[in-house]
Amino acid sequence: xxxxxxxxxxxxxxxxxxxxxxxxxxxxxxxxxxxxxxxxxxxxxxxxxxxxxxxxxxxxxxxxxxxxxxxxxxxxxxxxxxxxxxxxxxxxxxxxxxxxxxxxxxxxxxxxxxxxxxxxxxxxxxxxxxxxxxxxxxxxxxxxxxxxxxxxxxxxxxxxxxxxxxxxxxxxxxxxxxxxxxxxxxxxxxxxxxxxxxxxxxxxxxxxxxxxxxxxxxxxxxxxxxxxxxxxxxxxxxxxxxxxxxxxxxxxxxxxxxxxxxxxxxxxxxxxxxxxxxxxxxxxxxxxxxxxxxxxxxxxxxxxxxxx
Length: 308
Known about the structure:
By secondary structure, the protein is mostly helical. The chain has helices spanning 2-22, 26-46, 50-77, 86-109, 118-125, 130-138, 140-158, 181-203, 211-227, 239-262, 274-298. It has two domains: 1-113, Four Helix Bundle (Hemerythrin (Met), subunit A); 119-307, no CATH class. The longest helix is centred in the first third of the chain and has 28 residues, at 50-77. InterPro entries: CPA3_antiporter_subunitB, MnhB, MrpA_C/MbhD, Nuo/plastoQ_OxRdtase_6_NuoJ.
């Protein structure tokens, strides 16, 4: 039964992936892409990589899907949603195929890993979750750069705003019908989502969870409350939101400097202080990730227009 399920899942992943690339219509391609991400999340769960499955479902399928739908809606409002001609698609397909082939070649050309087995060094990390140990201890450089890249992506979105719109609220205001489904959902979801998001962050040190997963859940809660009209969209000039954006990378950098002064080197964590340091970094990263994702979804400052 499990073999048949895995074969069916693999076939669905290949079929939906092909449909998202070759299907007609931007909206249909986006829907197939979201479905593709959800299927990949199920596949990762089948492989026992629950942290990756959560990240895939929340960030790849959820957040990226919302961003693609928002981009599609913006293109339609600008009357720029026409399909590009085949002369544009074909070179892009050739380049993408070349990159994919290069990555496959690089994978097989890599030498055999010489690093020690993770189970042997896991006790030195201070946490019980091997994914957290890798992301925030043994390969902390990668996670630090990811948090900075996420902030850079938000700055890129903000650069799309007009100069005279910077004092306006971010994004377009939403108006939910009083007593409607969205308004009711916006009041029921936040307490549940808040508890679940905080749990993912706290549990991430020793089991499935972490800052990216918890931050994505908290961002979703915040977005629902904004769409329901309970919480207003922020303004770029508000100091609290700006401080929240840089809190995670800032704490991460301070931890790295402390490691350079008192441990083995930059981003090095002493074994006795590793767990509290990792939990502190994850808590700060969660705030920054949640705020960054919210601001990415609601878009750049806009001083006009409404969404019904």
